[in-house]
Amino acid sequence: MTSASTHNIEFRSVSKTYGSVTAVSDISINVPKGAFMALLGPSGCGKTTCLRMIGGFEQPTSGDVLIDGRMMNGVPAYRRPVNMVFQQYALFPHFNVEENVSYGLQQIRPKLANAEIARRAGEALEMVRLGGFGKRRIHEMSGGQQQRVALARAIVNRPSVLLLDEPLAALDKKLRSAMQFELQTLQRELGITFVLVTHDQEEALSMSDFVCVMNAGTIRQIGRPEEIYDHPGEFFVADFVGKTNRIEGTLEPGGKVVRMADGGALAIVARPGVEPGPVVVALRPEAIRLEHRPARMGEITGVITHRVFLGSTAEYSVAAPGIGDVLVTADHKTMTESDLIEPGATVTLAFDPAAAHVFRGTANQVTT
Ligand code: ATP
């Protein structure tokens, strides 16, 4: 079955169960052609299961998976226009780099001339900046280089979709950042759809065009990284994507004040539709400024308990009555000598009321 579609990948009410375990529950997603989408969520939320259903390594229990408008239910992995890069690169140790890259092409296109295979393998190696490494043995390559070989192998037959299952997890932090940048560049150059599974929110935010945040087998929010970070749709998303402070209280009628258990008031701006009653407020650490002055109406005071210097920023823990520990990130570069606040100081936590995200319910109910 085919249908005209600008979507590269479509999930229509897809569920997947393993015995009594529901791994994915009634998910619908549309991934545009040529997009870089990250599937982000905690361990066990169903990310890999989604990826495996795109790849054809798993079939949905119910619902439809389409690629380029073609129904994929029942189509085996090797007949899909999809390749996958695994966390363990699964390279053949007894093949050299070029042989590893050309192997897949030989399997899929057995009639292709050897010279053409070598040309395409060379091109793929150039794309991952490994031109000239073709004759090297795998054990002579570093971890980062092996990762690139795995990538070259996955793109050599120009799939429509490339699936990446935590591909950078085995690399150290510095190499990982470099590879994140390179993967993003490679995706732009190739123009094919990348779907990345990660539980690293920084990786998801920095690399992808769209982030799909999952929890407990369901999609909680899909959007551009900035949308997800700046406009989380629920507390779980605010909490999982980036750091956030959790403040519980009661939203008063009018949507401008959250009253906390100790009687203190927090000035906020609730979105239309958030009903008065129990709420949880998400406030980013960088949205708060520490100020040496008495609190105004709707602000809170606290005592600095810790300060951690992190290079360009510093993180402060502030014990605030009625709330508990509040995390504040200060931009160190813009701080003057007089801004430096030592533990023990009493400060006011100042923030723009519009920067606070107010969600109905209590934290326990909304975070699961
Ligand atoms: P992680 O980040 O830890 O890899 P994930 O978000 O990728 O997690 P999945 O691997 O998709 O999560 O698993 C989702 C749920 O389905 C989990 O509860 C998992 O235990 C279960 N599950 C996955 N594969 C199987 C399987 N083959 N048999 C039984 N249960 C499975």
Describe the fold and architecture.
The protein has two domains: 7-230, Rossmann fold (3-Layer(aba) Sandwich), CATH 3.40.50.300; 243-367, Nucleic acid-binding proteins (OB fold (Dihydrolipoamide Acetyltransferase, E2P), Beta Barrel), CATH 2.40.50. Helix 3 packs across helix 4 (143-155). Strand 12 (257-259) and strand 13 (265-267) form a beta hairpin. The chain is built from nine helices and 20 strands. Mean pLDDT is 89; it is low at 363-368. The chain has helices at residues 47-55, 97-108, 114-127, 143-155, 173-190, 201-207, 225-230, 235-240, 363-367; strands spanning 7-18, 21-32, 36-40, 62-67, 70-71, 82-85, 161-165, 193-198, 210-215, 218-223, 245-251, 257-259, 265-267, 277-283, 289-291, 300-309, 313-320, 324-331, 346-350, 357-360. Adenosine-5'-triphosphate (ATP) binds at residues 18, 21, 23, 41, 43-49, 199.
